[in-house]
Design brief:
This protein is an alpha+beta fold. The chain has helices at about 1-20, 30-60, 60-90, 95-120, 130-140, 175-190, and strands at about 145-155, 160-170, 195-205.
């Protein structure tokens, strides 16, 4: 919803810029505008730096959305300052329209990425090919006692990853040995994929032909 709101805001910026440009008697108080923009930029930079750091640490989509929201403010303010300076030097008010359009495109593009990420989370998107290959490589290389695997399932839920699969062992293996191999695989997966929740089912034979719910 926040992503959709930001996209809407980008469209509104373009609409208002065109509307304002078409109005008669269009003027800008450049000195006062510059003072307000400088103060606004200082506060916004502080907020953006903090939110980006938290978003990187937590991979939280809500924080990423908030960070994008403030980045749009930041780039808008920078664009306004550039516009004011150019208008003050040249008197070309059409620059306001051009810069507003560029800002709105950036806003809509950034918000679209947030919307796509949110959609994948809502749809329980599976891990990408690189992470899936990492999982398979770890399963296949940890121990020769593993005969095969099946029913591999992965998904994202917010910033969390969930991995589930069956390990197939020889019927003669002891529970202690199978458990030790399973623990090794789980620890390697957790080290390679930070924050992953892993569920491993131990099979004494390959039951992949059996349908499970």
């Amino acid at each position: 919803m926040e992503g959709l709101f930001i996209v809407f805001s980008g469209g509104v910026i373009t609409f208002l810029a065109i509307k304002k440009f078409l109005e008669k008697g269009y003027v800008i108080d450049t000195t006062l505008s510059l003072a307000f923009m400088v103060v606004s930029i200082i506060f916004t930079i502080v907020i953006v730096v903090y939110l980006d750091r938290v978003a990187k640490e937590t991979n939280n989509l809500i924080i990423k959305s908030d960070s994008l929201h403030y980045k749009t403010d930041l780039f808008s303010n920078i664009g306004i300052i550039v516009t004011i300076l150019i208008i003050k030097l040249t008197g070309l008010f059409v620059i306001d329209l051009i810069v507003s359009f560029i800002i709105s495109v950036y806003i809509i593009y950034g918000a679209s990425k947030i919307i796509i990420s949110a959609y994948h989370i809502l749809m329980d998107k599976s891990l990408d090919e690189i992470d899936t290959k990492t999982i398979i490589d770890i399963i296949n290389t940890t121990s020769p006692l593993v005969d095969s695997y099946h029913f591999l399932k992965t998904r994202y839920a917010g910033k969390d990853m969930f991995i589930e699969f069956h390990l197939v062992f020889n019927e003669d293996i002891t529970l202690l040995e199978a458990h030790a191999v399973s623990d090794d695989i789980e620890q390697r997966l957790k080290k390679a994929l930070k924050g992953a929740t892993i569920i491993i089912h131990l099979d004494p034979y390959d039951d992949s032909h059996i349908e499970i719910g």
